[in-house]
Amino acid sequence: MQKNDPYASLRYKEFNIFLLVRFLLVFAWSMQFIIIEWQVYSITKDPWNLGLIGAFEFIPAFTMALFAGHIVDQKEKRNLLALCIALFSLISFGLFFLTNPNLTEGWDSKVILYLIYALVFFGGFLRSFFGPTIFSLIALIVPKKLYPNAATWSSSTWQIASVLGPAFAGYTIYLMGVNLSLCIVFGLVLLSLLMVFFIKRKPIMNPKQGEPIKKSLQEGISFVFKTKAILGAITLDMISVLFGGAIALLPVFAQDILEVGAKGFGILRAAPAIGAFITMLITAYIPISKNAGMKLLAAIFGFGVCIIVFGMSEIFWISLLALFFSGVTDGVSMVIRQTILQLKTPDHMRGRVASVNSMFVGSSNELGALESGLTAKLMGTVTAVIFGGTMTLITVVTTGILNPTLRKLDLEDDLKKHENSSND
Hints:
Number of helices: 16
Shape: globular
CATH class: Mainly Alpha
């Protein structure tokens, strides 16, 4: 058996460029989302409006996901990613415009708020294409035997950007205000657009180009529901993210409960991503494919415990540690889920499978934000977070009992098959 090489996928030049593009995009997107949250809560002082941000991004991302997956499987991936980035730059510029007091002087705050929501809605539509395109492009850059390693580094890059983006947003809001912070976001998006053209165009792997949309979508959905490992992993993660969405309420905790201001808000927002990033670096050296199902269940259970501790805490450093360890457990969950998807998805179906995954998991972040905003309005902020963490624990225990296939999942055999096929 070959010795594990933690840097195997990084030896491919295009993969490094891809990681840089992804870093810039996620850094800019996470910065932008944090700035929007801060601005909206500053305008309204109502946690329900934070939930609406999630709703306006969730609706188009969810409803367009399957159609986006079909388009991704039919189109060349590099140019499609470039188009998505170009459209993202329009959103960033629009938000920069709306938050410039000199350009919007005399505008009613409600008008500005509604226009921000409109751009968030457009961003949700665009995000339905980003996930499947990026997921599919990875598989065209590195060999199959390196998919788990590439998935780990890609997820790690996502986490690095998620660490730095929110923290940087917190500091830039504190130092230079919302408008200039969004100007930085716009510049980063343009830089990512330039870098993506250093990746060569890729062949279209789908042998059924021009296939009717209905038949294509049915095939993608059917594959996911027949592949129990994929269905179990993404369903469990969806429910835990849906009920454990305390992150959406961080502006309330930072401003009203912990009273740490913009600087503390940035630190709190970055804590989960720091924990997840450290976990992913470790998994690059120590793969977690053996007994993956039990590890996934344990990780999400730990995530629920951390969310409950965070909700109960009124001390900044305890809240910070709870969020950090929620990131550690979430990092394990993310690596396992991405490895399952990469190993068990055929090349010609990657866009559609990634779209179904985004419907289950990606969109649940926004739906979780809506759930958190609604429960905070009805129960109070602290009670809402504790309720979400408790529901996560119940979900994990129930899934572990009722789904033995997921509980017994082991990815070692899949890895060996890909290694053997690459050596043939």
